Amino acid sequence: MSTVGINWIRFLRQHGPLSRNDSMYDEQIHRLARRLGVSPLSFEHPLERRLLGVFSADGPSPVSVVLTGTAGDGKTHLCGKVWRHVDGDLAAWGSDEQYFTKPILVGGRAVTLHLIRDLTALPEHDEQGRYADKASLLQRLARATFDTSSTDVFLIAANDGQLLEEWTRAGNDDRTVAARDLFERLLVEDLSETAEVPLLFCNLSRRPCSQLLDLALDALLTHTAWQACYDSAEPEGFFSGNCPIRRNYELLKDPLVRSRLRNLFELCDHSDLHTPIRRILLLLSNALLGHPGVKDRLMQAGDIRSIVAAGTTAKASLFSNIFGGNLTDTRRESLEIFEFLNRFRIGYETSNKIDNILIFGAADDSLRPLYERLLASDSFYGADEWYRAAQLAYIESAEEDDGSAATFLATLVAQRRRLFFTLPDDLAEPLRLWDLTMFQYAGEYLARVLYPLKQNAPVERAILSRLVRGLNRVFTGLLATTDRDLLLATSLSYSGARVSQILEDRIPVTPRLHERIALVLCNDRPTLSVHLAENVKRILGLNLTRYEFLSRVAEGALPGSFSRECYEDILAFKSQVLAALTERRRAEPPQGPQPLYLRLLDLDPSGNAIEQPVEVLND
Amino acid sequence: MIDQALRVPPPRPADHLQNEMWVDEQIWGHRLWDTQSPWLLFLEFLSVAEAKRRDGMLLDERGQLYPLQFRPNKRMGLRNLLFNNESMSRTAARLADNNSAWSEWLQEMHETAQGVSPPDFTYLRSHFRSFHQLELLLALLRSSAVESDSNRRWTSRFLFPFGPNALYEDLTVKGSTQPSREYINFGRTGELLYMMLCRADCANALRPCLDRFLAGDNPWNTLVGVLQPEGDQDRSLREASYLPYRRHSAFDRLGEDWLAVCRLQLPGFDAYPHLVTLSALHVALYQLAIAADQCATTRPHFICELVAPRKTLVRELSTMSYLDNAQLSRRAVESLISGIAESPEWLDAASQSNAFSLCKTILQDKVRWPRAAHPEDYDGPEDPARLLGDLRTNASNRHRQHAGNIHRTYGGGAGLVSRRGTNRLRYAPNDGLIKALVLANVQQRMEFGQFLATLFNRYGFVFGEREAERVLGKDDLDKRAFQANAERLERRLATLGMLRRLSDACAYVINPLWSVGQHDRG
């Protein structure tokens, strides 16, 4: 029997959450792939084509490149691709060497390429005598960056923090300091190039991870080795009808499951949470192979027989593994990707509707059809006999502190997680899929805000009104229901006070003259822009948390409850808009002596903001 | 020791006959008063600054370092309207008719107003047609009063400082007599603060900013002006505060922080809460810095804990750090007295035959004690050693009553010293202080490690392991405890919206209000 399938699983397992040394990861994976006789996962990084173009003979004029990001973003991998592209010495690449040089042709000009694979690992002094010390090499790059006639071109890969630190240590001459300031600005402001210098600055951390997930899933799920797994199926064992690995693989191919996973990653992108490629592969490996009862908590081909015999296949549920449910608490908390996904609290959030189906569905006539459709139909990870027994015990148990309650509640977590990925789209609205997560408005955010904006279509008015209502409640500190205008309120002494009752101005949502409020896409992120005059506007980026916060406040939550950070953010935004108001007033023609006129804010019984004008006469 | 060239000559004894002795005042000035909250400190400062601005001498001592003379406003008419006016709401509720409400209320005010003559408020009718609107406005203004929840007499309640029309000094009034100045709420530390800013390096740069605050170019100030009768010119001369140093790095740091906050050009009065916090902090730091100079020890440092859910090593060290610093001022007083006792002058006099009367003269010259007019100051045996001993005891007791509490009260008022989460005092900066420190020290952004270093270099605050190493030495330093402490600070800054984390190794402290003022620039 061919061992390709078994080796493939072994290879996949190495990508998972095993404790190992992370340095030279790329090389280790390649060596392992060669040893096991499988081809490694490969896909084209979105930046690859651009990068290779920069170092091509027919490319534009020479530019230096800095690749930065966190560990696992694929910097070394991309450097390897470039090195192959310029016909560099592959044997040298396989060694521990960090610094490579080669004369190449770029844009018709002959230049020397200096490739530094990992800036931190670069030794202080070079054994081959190519550079005096690290500092002088960096100074040389700084000069190359600012001096257009230089014949040096650099490609440097470094983690972002260390990039700046190394440069601070590289010396104090003008060029070096200028280079460091430039890198800092590009890093913090998320830019990739500036017109002034021939430099391409790629921060791989800024790639949307949903895009990387797509590439990784495609490469993983269409790999030829899976067919070998089918071919080498053992009865009641590896890749049989009862094999959890096979089940997980088939589930991951299911478009519904895949789209829900992608949604989660998109939401991570819009919460400014980044995860590098290495961690995505770790997640997928764990998702397919995780099981709490085996060695290293990742299954191997040899484990399947005993798992099936013991009847613990349900513990290998893909849906729990995605959240690291198979790992120990400390391990899970130490891995960022699981920490991000667990922020959605899927499995712990729920609604009455869903829990009713889960708990009482089998017994209740009105709920039974849904129960059959959603749970009973899946005997693998859904309502198996074990689940039914625990459910019965829970409902009928007489005593409070019976252990059965705890086990059943733990199963409920697993079932809710499963439901999140398998609830059919037609039931997503009526059963409120996103109530299973911490962000109840996330589904709306994706479907009714992000999607239309990407198609250049306007967002529904109802959503904009709700956001304005939320803003009004935070701006005024009152339970206002006004949603047609943005109320710019301040208190006497402090514009950031909790309750602000002096109305400075109202900005209408519907355009009037130059005033309006709109939801637009800015840098691929939804933003709310408040226009006060032709050249005067302020914008508020709407990441997922802020969107959730404003929506919840609009529907009645207290501003201090969901997120303190958001509350402070919104108050800072108010400060900015008030400053813009002053700017606009200053640009208006002066109006001579005016009587002192104030507008005090109050609410009528239905919550609309009404103004009480107070006028002071100066006789 | 303190550089004598930087000292200002002491004032004549006749100016301060109320002072039992001249010890705390010699070291720190007349005077540091502990029962003055940070807002009251700021308000006292503003009333001095307003008076000096009226004289055309804002932040400019013109070489005259003593005495600080100024004529602050009293504004008894306004204060009666705002804080001695219970009848107004009753009248407004009872009488709906405008005219009858006016006449009844004016009559009542005529009878109950204190400290203002003539007690005539009829001028208000010409500015406010509607009595009920006036009542609404006064209620609104009253709600903006500073520290309105403290139970003070009505003459010590203060309006928010909208502008010069809203500034006045602390007074007391009994019956229908003239109001008089009592130094309980405005204890003169605000006057010291004014002098410190005058003598800071950047006083010239600070002047236009302060001028803008005091110009009162906003509708609230105008409104408050309209509430007062024309020509309310009742002002008395105030003087006699003394700051013993021409220049000091503590003054410069205070000025730099003020300047940084002012330069942000925050809208409205948003800068004030931060200036209040920073002023209280710098007064406390001034006292400790001078005490350290006097004792000839190193600059004080402050091990700061970010409140953790459990007791940590940093909390222990922070408590000890607090206790060390709390003793500094007392040690400074003792050092002064020991200096006298070990001076050749004293030793010489003590060996003479009329030792006692010679020593007594020395003391009267140096510390103005025992006072000739108060024989009860010292009635023990005629022994120089006993005399000195009594001086020590009395000075220490006196110090403990007021000047010795500055570290605790101003440190607490600034948000540095607290008991939160434990039952002992230690250094645990609260959000208000952290915010103020970021606004004063970070321009657009600053790398986090550099931020920690700046806090250490400028104030002596220790948060992270590098600074802890400099202060505690390398051996038995628990690096991880301090690393965790610095991480907690990072998280706190992130919650306040003041931190941008790029990756594990890289975080930047951001000043979110930096760009608020930039739009208005040029």
List the helices and strands and how they pair.
The complex is a heterodimer of chains A (619) and B (522).
Chain A: H1 4-14, H2 25-36, H3 48-54, E1 64-69, H4 75-85, H5 90-93, E2 99-106, E3 109-116, H6 134-146, E4 152-159, H7 160-169, H8 174-188, E5 199-203, H9 209-221, H10 225-231, H11 244-253, H12 255-269, H13 277-289, H14 304-310, H15 318-321, H16 329-334, H17 336-342, H18 352-360, H19 368-376, H20 385-396, H21 403-422, H22 425-428, H23 442-454, H24 461-476, E6 485-490, E7 502-508, E8 516-522, E9 525-533, E10 536-541, H25 544-554, H26 559-562, H27 564-587, E11 596-603, E12 609-616
Parallel strand pairs in A: 1-4, 1-5, 3-4
Antiparallel strand pairs in A: 2-3, 6-7, 8-9, 9-10, 11-12
Chain B: H1 24-28, H2 38-54, H3 76-83, H4 86-94, H5 98-112, H6 123-127, H7 131-143, H8 189-198, H9 203-215, H10 219-226, H11 249-263, H12 271-295, E1 302-303, H13 313-342, H14 344-350, H15 355-367, H16 384-401, H17 406-414, E2 417-418, E3 426-427, H18 431-441, E4 445-447, H19 448-459, E5 461-462, H20 465-472, H21 479-495, E6 499-503, E7 506-510, H22 514-518
Parallel strand pairs in B: 1-5
Antiparallel strand pairs in B: 2-3, 4-7, 6-7
Helix pairs in contact in B: 2-8, 2-12, 4-5, 9-11, 11-12, 11-18, 12-13, 12-17, 12-18, 13-16, 14-15
Describe the fold and architecture.
The complex is a heterodimer of chains A (619) and B (522). Chain A is 46% helix and 14% strand. In chain A, strand 3, helix 6 (134-146) and strand 4 (152-159) form a beta-alpha-beta unit. With 619 residues, chain A is an alpha/beta fold. In chain A, 37% of the residues are buried. In chain A, helix 1 runs antiparallel to helix 2 (25-36). By secondary structure, chain B is mainly alpha-helical. Chain B is built from 22 helices and 7 strands. In chain B, the strands form 3 sheets. A 3-stranded antiparallel β-sheet of chain B has the order 4-7-6. In chain B, strands 1-5 form a two-stranded parallel sheet. The interface between A and B is large, with 42 and 45 residues.
